[in-house]
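#lab-general

N.A. 3:47 PM
ok so I finally got the sequence cleaned up, no stray characters, all 159 residues accounted for. can someone with queue access submit it? mine expired

B.Y. 3:52 PM
send it over

N.A. 3:53 PM
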Amino acid sequence: MTLIQKKLETKIGPMFLVVSENGLRGLLWKKQNVPMVPGTAKMEALLLRVEQEIIEYLSGSRKTFSIPLDVEGTEFQKRVWNELAKIPYGQTKSYKQIATALKDANACRAVGTANGRNPVSIIVPCHRVIAASGKLAGYAGGIEVKKALLEIEGLSLRD
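B.Y. 4:20 PM
back already:
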């Protein structure tokens, strides 16, 4: 499968957008081993759409995304990511709440691992997952980025 990548400079740092013919494969904080070359017209249009929606989100004018996803992961990871996608804008859930929603309250660590492997940060809002204590916990883009994303959504949490 052909994938292409584009670097997007944002106010919270660089992001790397990776798309396939079928949708967004990655919205990541580090450059991927994927060519940064032109793709098909469909792929280029998708890159522009992702870029626009991310810019709108970061400016506070977008609360939901309409980008088709083409993510890869284990069945458990996909279940976690589907649960993350249900967390509304401006709200948070704990790792334990996600595990409980998945019918396994003891799976907090596994939820944390799957959360950390989310390939489409922001779109699938892993930044909205916090520790049960209410504190900010790890984030692939760094705690400061997680804090900034939550502040865009009107939340102020302690780290």
